């Protein structure tokens, strides 16, 4: 079942590690927003703390993407609309149906 868990966490929710900075000190969020589903959620307990990511699509096609980055860590969010570097904490991002990113 490890392959299924890996797919949900790394691809649907988007939680991934940075190969140039192992150990989840730097996190990569790269979710895949699949048209057939409207919601995905994942969490990973790293040595630095809990990492979470979830997204939900609304009726207009906008996606709200929420991530939690542990203390003293940072993350890069990679989306079709661009990328954004985020510090530790809780973050809410909105991706409009036209791929515009709003923090």
What would you say this structure looks like, in words?
- The protein has one helix at 2-13, and strands spanning 15-17, 26-29, 39-46, 49-57, 63-79, 82-95, 101-102.
- It has one helix and seven strands; from the N terminus they run αβββββββ.
- A hairpin with an 8-residue loop joins strand 1 and strand 2.
- Strands 1, 2, 3, 4, 5, 6 and 7 form a seven-stranded mixed beta sheet that branches.
- The mean pLDDT is 90.
- It starts with a helix and ends with a strand.
- The chain is mostly beta strands and 103 residues long.
Q: Classify the oligomer.
A: single chain
Which runs of at least 5 residues are low in confidence (pLDDT < 50)? none
Mean pLDDT, all residues = 90
Measure the end-to-end span: 35 Å
Radius of gyration: 13 Å
Number of helices: 1
Question: Could you say which structural class the secondary elements and strand pairing correspond to?
Answer: mainly beta
- Mass-distribution shape: globular
Strand content: over 45%
Sheet with the most strands? 7 strands, mixed
Q: How many individual β-strands?
A: 7
Helical proportion, percent range: 10-25%
Q: Can you write the helix and strand succession as a string?
A: HEEEEEEE
